[in-house]
Amino acid sequence: MIRVSFLLALVPISLILTLSFFVLYAARKVEEKGLKIFGYVVASLLWFSALLVFSGAVYRVAKTRGAVECMIQQKTKGCVLPQMRQQDNLTASPVSEKGAMTKDDKHGKCTANKGLF
Fold first, then answer.
1. Nearest to 83, CA basis, from 95, 69, 75, 98
2. What percent of the chain is predicted at pLDDT more than 90?
């Protein structure tokens, strides 16, 4: 399923690549060597910025996919709360001296995939 943020990234990517096309077109028409090199440098920087926008969109989709998987695991009891782990003797969770739960103990720890895919 394609996320909306990924689709919204296509708009600036297409604008940047269109602009780079016209920069390259103008650079080919120019006869001065210095201006032609400048046009190629500007076009390559535009391509690099389009690549950055694309990689940012891929990162955001992967990051939100991990968060969604974690929420699904919590709803389907994949992430067990630390109190339930202690009762079942699966693992022991660290408890502070006062017996109060730490911030990590209040929320179940999810081991969702937080990589790119």
1. 95
2. 38
